[in-house]
Each structure stands twice: as C-alpha cells, then as structure tokens.
Amino acid sequence: MRVRVSRLVVFLWRDGQLVCDDPLRHRQFALTVEAERLLRDYADWAEPEGRLAQQLLDAHVLVAEGSPEHAQEERLGAWRDLGPAATYYHLASRTLGSDVFRSAAQDAAVLRAKSGQPDPVREHDGPRIALPPADPPAVDFTTVLAARRSTRWFDPDRPVPLPAFAALLRWTAGVRREVDVSGVGTALLKTVPSGGARHPVEVYPVVRDVAGLEPGIYHYAVRRHELVRLAPAPGEDRLREWCGGQPHAAQAGFLLMYAAVLDRTVWKYPAARAYRALLLDVGHLSQTVYLTATALGLGTFFTAATRDAPVEDALGLSWPDEAFLGVSGVGVPHPAERDRQAAMLAGGDAAFSFPPDAWHGRGE
Ligand SMILES: Cc1cc2nc3c(=O)[nH]c(=O)nc-3n(C[C@H](O)[C@H](O)[C@H](O)COP(=O)(O)O)c2cc1C
Known about the structure:
With 364 residues, this protein is of the alpha+beta class.
C-alpha cells in the first residue's frame, strides 16, 4: 500500500508552527518538525515507513492509494476547476452533522455579553444631497416578476429621472423600520432580507446620467435617504474597465456598487461561514433592485465580473474593512429594447438583451 499527502488538506503557519488544516473534517493539527520533514517524502506515492507515517495516515494527512479517501480526491468534479482556494473555503465553511447551532436566546445572550455592536449604518463626510421621498408605482406583482429581465441596451438620449433613481434606492437599500434589540442595539429592517439583520452591504451609486444630479461617485445614506458626494465622475472607459470590459456598464445611467462592511456581520457571526452570508446578502439586494427597477420601467443588469482592486481605490474602500462584491447597472432601456422585451413577454422570440452591434445572446 502506497500513501501520499492528501490533496484536500492545507498547511498554514500559525504562531511559529506548521498547522495542517483538514477542511473536510474540520480538524487542525500542529505538526512536529519530524512530521513536517517526513511529509516531504510523501509528496508523491511512496510506501509508508514507521509509526509517524501511520499516525499521519490515521489523521488523514496522508491518504492510501485505492482508499475511499483517495477515490474522493479523484472525484473532485467541478472543484478541480474552481481551484484549491474555492475548495478549501467551501469545505472549511461547510457544516457537519456534529455542528452545534445556538438557539436565538443563546445567540442573544452571547451578543449582550459583547461590547457595542458595530454601527448598522456608515456615514461618510462630504456634500449631502437630499433625495425626493419617491415611491415606485403600485404595479401588479406578477406582472413585475414576469417582466424582469437583464437589460444591456440603454437609451443614450434619456437620463434616468431623479424620482425613479430616488425611489429605487429608497425601496431597496433604504431603511423601512428599526428594531431596538434589548441589550444589543438597533437592527435595521429593509425591503431586502439580511443574514442576522446585519445589513452589511453599503451602496455606492456611480452616477453617469441621472436628471438633476451631477455625475460622480456617491454614497447612499440609508437612514437619511441622502447622497453623499465622494469623488468626481469616472470616465466611461473606467466604468467599462471596472466591469470587465462590458460596454453596457458605460452606458447605464448609474451603477450601484455593493460593498459589505465586514465587522457588521462578523460581530454576530465570527466564523468563515459568515462570508457566504455576505455574498447571499448582495444577491438578495440585487434581485430587489431588479424587481424595483422593473416596476419603475427601468432596465438593469447585475455583474460580478468586476475589477475589484481599482473599484476599491476609486471608492476609497480598504478590503480588510469593506469588501466590494458586485454591481447593478441601471438605466432607461433603449426604445427598441423596451419593445423587444414587451414582445418577448407577449410570447415573441426569446433572446438575451444585447445592443444590435454586440453579441445578441443567441450564440450565432
Ligand atoms: C451572479 C450573477 C452574475 C451575473 N453577471 C453578469 C455579467 O457579468 N454581465 C451581464 O451582463 N449580466 C450578468 N448577469 C445577468 C445574467 O447574465 C442574466 O441573469 C442571465 O443571462 C439570464 O437573463 P435574465 O436576467 O434576463 O433572466 C449576472 C447575474 C447574476 C445573478
């Protein structure tokens, strides 16, 4: 029987010691210098020799050729392409049958014992612009659901009306109510759900063409329903570059940049799994933007194909505090695109939304 180092374990230096982290079983071992040296001999299949090799095999740091563990490593499927970083994160944050879940009462007791929760809203310094307290029209919900599409062809001649811009922010990221959680602090309630009611996602509108608003980079103050101006408008080349070269990103009336304030969620959930909640929160927000934009007669698309580092620089975000996670682009649909989507809704040809000079989504 030959053995080699497991492909699923990860080695990390912690406090001067090499630690083997087995994400599949949620176990960590500090390795002795002897074990560390011995592992080099098993980078590839070799006969196990001695008690230490047997102990490492028993601990699943080594796997035996032909064993169920070996078969599992051979059956990685899509994880092979997702790569070791994604595989490690997924397994390390994947719960096991033995995981202990706290009750809501236990959770509350733990939170009350902690010192002050992070502020549920972010305030930025800068010139403030009050937004009108606009609402989306009262439209039939089923109609909105059926009409929701990704739009990538915008009208170059029609800026987004300010009331529509304001209504979209107010009914997606805006605060609807607040709950006073005894001994913990305030929790926000929005139209969007959020893991643990933490609402970590901040919205940074990048305005290109909204009637009555100076183009620029803003922060949306969710309690006051105001914009705070942070920086001048980036050029259209940068908007395109930020969104992985997608032309429609530079043609939308505005982009909503989503960034999660890590502390807000991690204060309540100090575990790797909380990162999943941040991504899920962005998804819920994006979908609410999709539906609200549809109700307002606007077109929208979401993209995660972004150049994160330059966006963080432009927004003044530092990744240890606030993680940039995605973008919704919103604008007035081009009249031809509006007609196409209406025809599709009425049973006409189905296709993705693309301007006629771009790939139109049928793969032809
Ligand atoms: C996680 C995620 C990432 C997406 N990335 C992009 C993107 O990079 N560019 C884009 O134009 N649309 C993007 N979309 C929109 C999808 O392409 C779109 O939802 C899909 O083609 C189905 O079309 P529909 O939204 O009209 O139903 C994304 C959607 C999601 C949920």
